[in-house]
Each structure stands twice: as C-alpha cells, then as structure tokens.
Amino acid sequence: MKKLFLFAAVMFSSISFSSCSEDDNKENQTSQKLLKQIEKIFRNGTCYYNFSYDDSGRLAKVTINGDHDFCGDYPYTYTDNSVSVKYNDHSYDPWNYDAAFILDHNGYVTEFDINGETRWRYEYENGYVSSKSSNRDREIVTYRWENGNLMECRQVVENLHDTYTHTCTYTYTDKPNKLNVNLFDGELSYTDSGIFEYNSLFTNFKGSISSNYLASIGSYVDGKLSPYYSCKISYEYDDEGYPTGIVLSYDSGGFVYLRLTYY
User: What does pTM read for this prediction?
Assistant: First the structure.
C-alpha cells in the first residue's frame, strides 16, 4: 500500500444512476448545495480544489492549485457503463493517466482501470462494497459496514521483506451526511486506502458512502496504533448542516484544516 501523505486528492461529485430501492445505501443522496471550493491548510502550505459541474449537476472538471503534489486539471466524461477521468499534470508527464470506472447495469463499480490496465475488482454485500482485489499484486482489501457506515477496512500487505496487516477503524458523528462529494475517499484517507481512490482521484459511487460524517480514524499495523494516520475530526456547520470547516487533529500532533464553500 502506498503511504503517500493524506489528502493528495481531488474531489469527485455525486453521480446519479438508475433508481434503486430505499434499502440501497446513500449513494444517491441529493444535495441542494454543490461544493465550489475546498481550501486546505496544512503543515506544508495551502492548496485549493475548485469544482465545476455540467447541467445535470455532475462534476465536469476539478482544478487543483497551490502547494500540492498533483496540481492540474481533472476533466470527467460519462457513458452508460463507465465514468472516465483524465489527469493532466502540467509539469510532470509520467503522472498523467486515464482512469475508468466500469459500471454494472445497477450503477455499481465492478472494475477500476488505469491506462487500460485493471487495478481493482469489486464485490458487494447487502448493497455495500465488501472487498476489492488486485490481480497484479494479489492484494485483497475487505470492508465492514454497520447501520450505513463503514466501520473497518482491513488489508494484508505482502512484500519482499515481510507480511503485515493494516487495519483502519472509524467512528461517526450523529450528523447526516449531506455532501455531494465523498470526503472519505477524498480528504479522509491516503492513497490506495480509499475504496476507489488512486493518486489524487476521488469518487462518489453506489455502495461506498457512509450515512454520517466521520468523527475519528484509527490506523493500525499488526494491531499497533499508527499515530501518523490516526486522527480525531471536528466540524463547523452552517444552518443547514453542511460543513464549512473541518479540523483533523492527528495523534502525532499534526493537524489539517479544510475550509469548504458552496455554490
């Protein structure tokens, strides 16, 4: 698992697919507000994520500026059975890529491809993603859900030197999640730790969105707490319950502040 710094990311808007029953999860939460910008203040500086949408309210493009490893444009295209994102790094060509999320007839992601190569395949249980697997390096990540919230992510990591288990646990506020972006895959997990994330790529697909806002993340390696990735999360809300400020306070002593503005 690549342990890049938390928040190397770009936000992905909610995507509307075919209708589903109330027993499905919160993937089609409608929001009267669309996120316009995230300003991220952290130890190394400040960066900005700017969002634009098409006439259907789907994300058309994200542009990242400032102190960020992946500044550039992220345009989105949509078909009946896929969502594609092109990453254009203005200064470092090797990071450019085309990402494609392959959807089944119910709108669930079954496969995630990068530059034509399959990176992850997904399985679901009771309407939520239960695992993802990679043929390339034989990795399997499992997910446990309760009451519409992701409670645990577990991955066994094998490399040339050793094998270890990485586990993340989550707690939640009592506030319902109203955002049109997936903050878990976006700003609250590091690369390859998110369900669909890959190097600054965000998603908001069916079966991956928790019903409430995260309150804490616990990161463990073979049962031992990793303070660098574990944090408590606090929020400032507007009168409608949308977060306008988010503070992540890490067990290691660091912090990140996110300022959110809406259209």
Answer: 0.82
